[in-house]
Amino acid sequence: MPKMKTNKSAAKRFKVSGTGRVRRPKAGGNHLLQEKSRKRLRRLRKNDMVNKTLERHIKRLIPYG
User: What is each CA distance from 32 to 13, 18, 19, 28, in whole angstroms?
Assistant: First the structure.
């Protein structure tokens, strides 16, 4: 059986945590930052979890994640 291919764009965006949940960065932290408040930028630094309904789809894209 050949190895499964990892979707590289998904591998760059998502990581699987130790408990098996999928982590993702929050959107909106790359540009137009001068208009956003410091409080908002602090919140954007933290990672977020992917919704349970989408986890199965993402795990299929990163089989070795």
Answer: 21, 33, 34, 9
